[in-house]
Amino acid sequence: MATGCNAAVAVPPHKRSDTETTSTIEISGWRLTSTSLPISNGAEIDACQAEVGINLPEMFFGNNSLVLEWFGPDSDVGTPPTRPDSEENVNDIDIEPDRQPLWRYEFRAQDALKCVHRGPSEPGDGCVKVGYSEAWLKSRTGPAAESPMPEMVEVKPYDWTYTPLYPGHTSLPNNMDNGGFVAANPENPQHAIPIAELQRPDPILFYAEIPLYEDELHDNGLSILTIRIRVMPGSLFILFRFTLRVDDVLFRNFDTRIYHSFVRNPPVVVRDIRGWETSYKTLRSLLPNPEDLSPLTDPQWIARMLASLPESSTMDKSSRRSTGWRGLGTRIEVLDLNKLNKMDGELSSGINALRLDENKFEPV
């Protein structure tokens, strides 16, 4: 990720709209909406379980989401109307819900669970066993076992750790390969997330932290998926993080970072996807106090420690210590918003041409 630091920018015009369950900001042609509700009820869980085809995590927030919508550089989305004769606070002005965005990107728990592996484990799936599973199997498959069982038993028909290879998804337009993202150019500094800029103490215009699901893996660890978003005067930044701890086996992280600058030209969305894993023993050895295991339950501490280890030991699918999980490694992609704007312009031109052709016909 890039380390360059741009100068601070002035706070642009923007609008906020908040309810008990949703928060929205419109800024620089964007509308960003976070939805946060309590855990799904029984009927919602049954419906989602039927849809995704697996048992749901213990804590499932099926109504929670983060939705990004981009309306184009010429849109007035985020620009409060001028009302010289009114003292109404621009932050209280109703946001128009009926505009059609050029691009929409979403994060939802149901879609993440659809990306959890189902069926027997195959190479690359990264499926794991709990710490005592080998001993458990030997007690039932060894020569002295009273009730022998086959050596391989498919205990669950899906990845019980709920590991999703899900970085969010483009829902509009819905016909774009890879959601419109292409591989980043490593020589182009605009195709990287500027860490120094994000570390600057800029004003936070919008912030949300949204849980999607959590499970304690039958007291064998932790599986948790969350979203964080913050909007500054010059940019938006999202961290979508899956954290896995399987006691006495491994730790795993799957992070998706989304960055967009409101002032860079050309306008691009950077998507940085990274996956790490290492043994439980390795991360436990990094505890500042070996007697205090509480950091092992902290997703932020786990992520920092995984990122501090050599990539050859945490991101290499071919490593002897690796599960071979296909989520390991780094993938940086960009979406060129100018291309979306061009596509919309071509579509509008086609519609206008069709209308002109229709006007050539006189009524009988």
TrEMBL record:
Record-level GO BP terms: TOR signaling
Region (Disordered): 1-20, 72-93
Record InterPro entries: Phosphatase_reg/MetRdx, TIP41-like
GO CC list: cytosol
Pfam families in the cross-refs: TIP41
Family statement drawn from the similarity comment of this UniProt entry: Belongs to the TIP41 family.
Protein known as: Type 2A phosphatase activator TIP41
Native source organism of the sequence: Thanatephorus cucumeris (strain AG1-IB / isolate 7/3/14)
